[in-house]
């Protein structure tokens, strides 16, 4: 008895990139002409072109897919470097061919020059207790009211990619995106069906905005206002503090009975749970020191404290410092952390473990301009700007009501 089996194809496709020329320099928003020869002993099913950061090894723009259906194929395509926020650096095109069984890739390196980053203004949110007024200054330190939100302030971020102020109302399940140029709320996303509970924290990086819903989990919007990130907490727990890192995110998850607490490491792109470590205190904020380590700022009955959390090993290093009860924290471009406490503003430097008194101002609202190395401090209706290194006030003004939030605006183009 004889049996026949179709021979398996073990020959990978051949991919030869003809253009662009290796190490050509482009600017963001440029177009790159790509020309590639692809061939195989079998029919090529598809070809995919991706732009990848050489630093992070992550794709920085959506891949482009081509259906082929022939053994020899000349791909010619104009690729738009459509992200104005890409930083200056080394990138590469990855061209991958697939013949139904085998995949192979070729690579071509290019250099991209990013936009010069500029501060274009400052948002200050003030509240009388029931509504929130939004003021804006275009670098002249003259604040004009540009909008009134009909709800109390819970949190806000400035989304640089869309140039919008994203407002999170207190005890509410919606986010309002305010366009300062048009002077209008351009988009309100209400989660009446799948998010019946109110949001409680909001954080962002240059492109994506993520927020927590205590009884549900963590959700995120990408720059096109599409939901692209989800972590759903089990029915027995709630989520509280949230930290955004370069390689992963960290969330504090608490039993509904107020018992066990855990720090969960979540996939940066999908929100999938990767690993967890136990903690025993109420976390105020989570800020990353580097790609692998996050500083956990928390309060106890004795006051505020800090501990270090490694996202790979989940190891915790406790009692890094002690201070008065912590209100909020901002990270500086030199790696220090400015901490607003009940009685004063202090700075913590992870490189040497030092905690230093900075300002004798209690329960301050903070913001940081990393381009000019300046700290914005709000207390009551007073707003001051300090050069971080000199600890000297360079500007000050009085606002009409109590300051509840400060956000620095940077250019997109």
Roughly how many Å is the radius of gyration? 25 Å
The rounded distance between the terminal residues' Cα atoms is 72 Å
**What structural category arises from helix and sheet content?**
mainly beta
> How would a textbook summarize the main sheet?
6 strands, mixed
Helix and strand topology:
Blueprint: E1 14-19, E2 24-27, E3 31-53, E4 64-80, E5 89-98, E6 103-113, E7 119-127, E8 132-137, E9 144-149, E10 153-159, E11 164-169, E12 174-179, E13 184-190, E14 199-204, E15 209-213, E16 217-221, E17 227-232, E18 237-244, E19 248-255, E20 261-267, E21 273-279, E22 282-288, E23 293-300, E24 303-310, E25 316-323, E26 326-331, E27 337-341, E28 345-349, E29 354-359, E30 365-369, E31 374-379, E32 382-387, E33 392-398, E34 402-410
Parallel strand pairs: 2-6
Antiparallel strand pairs: 1-3, 3-4, 3-5, 5-6, 7-8, 7-34, 8-9, 10-11, 11-12, 12-13, 14-15, 15-16, 16-17, 18-19, 19-20, 20-21, 22-23, 23-24, 24-25, 26-27, 27-28, 28-29, 30-31, 31-32, 32-33
């Amino acid at each position: 008895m004889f049996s026949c089996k179709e021979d398996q194809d073990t020959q990978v496709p051949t991919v030869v990139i003809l253009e662009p020329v290796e190490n050509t320099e482009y600017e963001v928003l440029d177009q790159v002409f790509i020309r590639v020869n692809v061939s195989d002993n079998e029919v090529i099913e598809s070809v995919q072109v991706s732009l990848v950061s050489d630093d992070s090894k992550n794709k920085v723009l959506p891949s482009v897919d081509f259906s082929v259906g022939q053994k020899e194929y000349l791909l010619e395509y104009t690729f738009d470097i459509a992200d104005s926020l890409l930083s200056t650096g080394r990138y590469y095109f990855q061209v991958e061919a697939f013949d139904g069984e085998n995949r192979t890739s070729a690579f071509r390196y290019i250099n991209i020059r990013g936009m010069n980053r500029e501060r274009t203004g400052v948002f200050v949110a003030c509240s009388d207790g029931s509504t929130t007024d939004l003021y804006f200054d275009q670098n002249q330190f003259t604040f004009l009211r540009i909008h009134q939100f009909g709800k109390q302030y819970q949190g806000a971020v400035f989304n640089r990619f869309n140039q919008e102020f994203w407002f999170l109302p207190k005890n509410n399940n919606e986010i309002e995106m305010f366009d300062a140029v048009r002077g209008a709320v351009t988009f309100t996303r209400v989660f009446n069906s799948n998010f019946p509970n109110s949001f409680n924290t909001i954080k962002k990086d240059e492109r994506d905005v993520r927020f927590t819903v205590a009884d549900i989990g963590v959700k995120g919007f990408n720059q096109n206002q599409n939901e692209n990130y989800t972590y759903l907490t089990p029915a027995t727990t709630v989520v509280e503090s949230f930290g955004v890192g370069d390689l992963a995110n960290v969330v504090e998850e608490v039993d509904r009975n107020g018992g066990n607490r855990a720090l969960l490491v979540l996939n940066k792109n999908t929100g999938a749970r990767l690993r967890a470590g136990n903690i025993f205190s109420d976390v105020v904020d989570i800020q990353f020191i580097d790609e692998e380590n996050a500083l956990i700022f928390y309060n106890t009955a004795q006051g505020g404290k800090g501990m270090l959390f490694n996202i790979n090993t989940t190891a915790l290093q406790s009692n890094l410092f002690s201070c008065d009860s912590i209100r909020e924290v901002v990270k500086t471009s030199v790696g220090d952390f400015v901490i607003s406490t009940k009685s004063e503003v202090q700075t913590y430097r992870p490189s040497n473990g030092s905690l230093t008194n900075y300002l004798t101002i209690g329960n301050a609202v903070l913001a940081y301009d990393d381009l000019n190395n300046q700290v914005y401090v709000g207390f009551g209706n007073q707003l001051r700007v300090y050069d971080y290194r000199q600890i000297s006030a360079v500007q000050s003004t009085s606002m009409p009501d109590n300051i509840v939030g400060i956000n620095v605006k940077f250019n997109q183009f």
